[in-house]
């Protein structure tokens, strides 16, 4: 096990140096990943959540700016749900016959039940659960949920989700845990 540690460290160091060198591409990359993670069909296939958690750590370790990457992540998430909602609003129930959803009809059933129970709050909280993140915007579009109500919940959840997915890695790898904990009055680090 200890023989692999230098290799892992070399990969991490190489990745951090690559990000520093190509910093301008990092925001568009996380935007695409967050979009894919939030787009109904792609999110069921793309494990972007894990990649985005790692991106938070890479932001902290590389020293690049947090806010542009956070903004790109939130925007990608917002756009992914918006497109899913728009497609379902246009195609209605026929969208549930698309390849991946037709193979797993229980996903749409669970998304529909969650939406029926919680309404607009389902848009917000659904983002934090993989299968619901993929289906709740579709259900909202299929039942013709109001655009403004959907977009308010969509925007709010995208901002919170982007924070939750990037911030832990960022503050951990940037060595900022003590600063944040002290800010909230939780500890006095030495």
Describe this structure in words.
The protein is 76% helix and 0% strand. Helix 1 (5-21) crosses helix 3. The radius of gyration is 19 Å and the shape is elongated. The protein is mainly alpha-helical and 190 residues long. The chain is built from ten helices and no strands. The protein has one domain (5-183). The chain has helices at residues 5-21, 26-38, 48-62, 66-91, 99-103, 105-118, 120-126, 130-142, 147-173, 177-183.
Defining traits:
10 helices, 190 residues, 0% strand, mainly alpha, 76% helix
Describe how the helices and strands are arranged.
Elements: H1 5-21, H2 26-38, H3 48-62, H4 66-91, H5 99-103, H6 105-118, H7 120-126, H8 130-142, H9 147-173, H10 177-183
Query: Number of helical runs?
Result: 10
Structural class: mainly alpha
Helical content (DSSP H or I, runs of 4+): over 70%
What is the CA-atom radius of gyration, in angstroms? Answer: 19 Å
Distance between the termini: 32 Å
β-strand number: 0
Mean pLDDT: 84
Strand coverage percent? under 5%
Largest sheet: none
Number of domains: 1
Global morphology: elongated
Unreliable residue runs: none
Order of helices and strands: HHHHHHHHHH
